[in-house]
Amino acid sequence: MDLRALRYFIETVRHGSFTVAAERLCVTQSTVSKMLRQLEDEVGQPLLHRDGRRIRVTDVGRILFDRGQEALGVMRELNREVADLTALARGELTVGLPPTVNLFFTPVVKAFRERHPGVRLTLVERGGQIIEQQVASGELEVGVTLLPVDPALGLATRTVGRHPIVAVGPADALWARQAQVDLSHLDGEALVLLHDDFALTRQLRDAFRRFGVEPRIVAQSGQWDFLVALAAAGLGTALLPQPLLARMALHPELAVRPLADPALAWTVAHIWPPGRYLSHAARAWLAVCEDVLDGGAIG
Question: Does 258 score more than 50 pLDDT?
Fold first, then answer.
C-alpha cells in the first residue's frame, strides 16, 4: 500500500476537506483526489462518501484511518531510530508549543541550539488540545500543553510551571468588588476567552459545567493580548494566566482578581507517549528544558 496515498487519506479525514488537506500537504486538490481514488481501487471498497462539500467516512474507511495512523506512526519511529545512529551530530525535532507559552521557552530554544547545533529544531504552534492529539497519534514526539490532559490519550506528563488564573475586566464589574473571584460571580457575565482548541478554555468550560455556571461568551480569539484589549474596551471579562499579564502594561482602569478555586490553575507540562521510542533529540530537548527552566519552573 502506498504510504503517501495513505497519508493523503488520513489528512483528508482528519480535516474533513479535500481543500484543507491539500493545503496542509502542499499539493493540489486534484492530486489528493487522484491518490484517494488509487487507494480505493487498491482496497476495492469506497473509503469516503462525498455529499456535496461534506465528506463521510465509510466503515472500511474508518478501519483504514485507524490502522493507517498506526502504520504511519511506526514508519516515523523507524525513521527516527535510524537517524539516531548518528547521535546528535545531525537530525531534526518538532516540538508542539501553545502560543500562550511560547515566550517562556525562548531561553530553552537558545540553549538547545547552542548545545546541539546539528539538530534542526522546528516549533509548531497549536492549541493544547491539538498538540495532545498529535503527540498521542505519533505525529509529534513531544509537546507542551496545560494540565489536566485528556486521560483517554494516556500521555506521560512532566510539570514545568503552575500559576493562578486571573479575571481581567472593567473596574465596575460585580466580581471586581471581591478580593478573589468565585466562579459563581461569573454566572451570566460576558466573557472573552481563548479559542476552544486551547487547553485553558477546555479547563474553564469543564469547571463551568461542574458548578452550574452559565457565562455569556461574547468573543473568542487565539491572541491573549487581544482578549485584554477587548476587556479594556468593556466587552467582557478575560480569564488568563497571571504570568502572561505580567508581560504587558495593563490599562489602569482594568480590574485584575485571581480566581478563588486553587484547582483552577495554569499548569504547564511536557507530554509524550509512555513506552514509545523517544529520539535522542527529543530526550535532549527534555533535558535542556529541565536544566534551563530551573528544574521545571516557568514563571
Answer: yes
